[in-house]
Design a protein that fits this description.
Blueprint (H helix, E strand, L loop, with lengths): L4 H16 L21 H8 L2 E4 L12 H11 L13 E3 L10 H10 L4 E3 L9 E3 L13 H6 L7 E5 L2 E2 L2 E2 L4 H8 L3 E4 L1 H6 L5 E4 L4 E7 L12 E7 L9 E6 L18 E5 L2 E6 L4 E10 L2 E5 L6 E10 L2 H5 L9 E5 L10 H23 L2 H12 L1
Parallel strand pairs: 1-18, 2-3, 3-4, 5-17, 8-17, 17-18
Antiparallel strand pairs: 6-7, 9-10, 10-15, 11-14, 11-16, 12-15, 13-14
């Protein structure tokens, strides 16, 4: 009997994937398959690099027609991955490119805000509660990416926003290596949609009397959307020039120096740098820093700015149903992605596959039985003698 156990085990292993491939949410009205890469390897790796995870929606469901699906997508995501290093809850949602029916916008906006989304990717729905970030610089796909389009969008004061699609139907899409190599050499702040949105807060400013050699920056203690994203303040002295502004130190209130940045710091962190006569200071919510100048200063101006004086670039991975496939090839890239996660649609199993597997299994059993008998001549001889009697 033992000699049949191995062939039977082989058949079970052959048939097992047919019955375990699909993992469907039985308690959801929106069936889906799992993307295991969210919780294994790809998800943790991209999170550690500084990527963001947002939602695209449920498979085959138009959120304009079914706003309830937005909450289901959020639950799917939060059960598997944290949205960002700055905050656990997702705040970015991807809308379709088609212009929606304006009569549906109100219910969609309410559903987005109720589920905690404050950034939409795609066309604006005209809801002041939601910041719309639309694509203005094309895509990263080979033969589609355009350096000219990226350059054209760099000087308008807004983020450079690109899309990335790794699969079109059954076809895998390649990235454009020339465009990527060029991007790596440009003065970009590689950020994400949610990180950019939540960083748009500047500190308040106080002086220590007149004449003064120092100012104190006080970053708001509660950041928007409960993300602890550093905000960047741009401090300039009235009638000053780049050569005329001399900073002695930038320190937290406990006397510890705030790190000084350089032009190669292209991922958001706390620190400071002088750019074109202004001081760019990035500090976390609740922080206070004191800037000491080498001479007394006059009037001071402060405004919100972009990290390190760089141009923000946001790259959106759309309809991400397989995070490994979408992120493969970007492990060594400086680019940071906003992954719009969409659960996989339920795989439709073709009836021919189980039939083929069953036939292969039966053939395997008989072939292995024949080989076992042939490899045991003593048993074969004994059986033959018994049959002759």
């Amino acid at each position: 009997m033992d000699k049949f156990r191995l062939p039977i085990a082989v058949v079970i292993l052959l048939l097992l994937p047919l019955f375990t491939h699909t993992v469907i949410a039985d308690d959801s009205e929106y069936p889906y398959d799992e993307d295991g890469w969210l919780t294994r390897i790809a998800g943790p790796e991209r999170f550690a690099l500084g990527d963001e995870f947002g939602c695209q929606g449920m498979p085959g469901v138009n959120p304009f027609e079914d706003p309830d699906s937005i909450a289901s997508c959020r639950t799917y995501l939060t059960d598997r991955v944290q949205a960002s290093r700055w905050g656990a809850s997702p705040i970015t949602f991807g809308l379709q490119d088609e212009s929606p029916d304006s009569t549906l916008n109100q219910s969609l906006g309410d559903a987005l805000v109720t589920s905690g989304f404050h950034v939409s990717i795609g066309p604006s729905i005209g809801d002041g509660r939601i910041e719309a970030i639309d694509f203005d610089a094309g895509s990263l796909e080979k033969s589609v990416a355009s350096i000219e389009a990226i350059e054209a969008s760099m000087g308008d004061g807004n983020p450079v926003v690109l899309r990335w699609i790794a699969e079109l139907g059954d076809l895998n899409v390649r990235k454009d290596p020339d465009a990527l190599a060029w991007i790596e050499t440009q003065p970009f702040w590689f950020t994400t949609a949610g990180e950019y949105h939540t960083s748009q807060t500047s500190a308040s400013i106080t002086t220590t009397g007149r004449p003064s050699h120092s100012i104190i920056l006080d970053q708001p203690s509660v950041n928007v959307d409960e993300w602890s994203t550093p905000g960047t303040s741009v401090i300039s002295l009235v009638n000053s020039t780049e050569s005329g502004i001399q900073v002695e130190s930038v320190r937290w209130m406990n006397g510890t120096d705030l790190p000084q940045l350089d032009e190669m710091d292209r991922h958001l962190r706390v620190g400071w740098r002088i750019v074109s006569g202004a001081i760019y200071v990035s500090i976390a919510p609740g922080d206070k820093v004191e800037i000491q100048f080498e001479q007394s200063i006059g009037d001071v101006e402060i405004e919100n700015g972009d990290f390190n004086g760089l141009t923000p670039m946001i790259v959106i991975g759309e309809h991400v149903t397989d995070l490994f496939e979408w992120s493969s090839g970007f492990q060594d890239s400086s680019i940071r992605f906003t992954w719009l996660i969409e659960p996989r649609p339920v795989a439709q199993m073709d009836i021919i596959l189980p039939i083929i597997a069953l036939v292969v299994g039966v053939i395997t059993v008989f072939q292995m039985r024949r080989l076992i008998n042939r490899d045991n001549p003593a048993e074969f001889t004994h059986s033959s003698l018994f049959e002759q009697e």
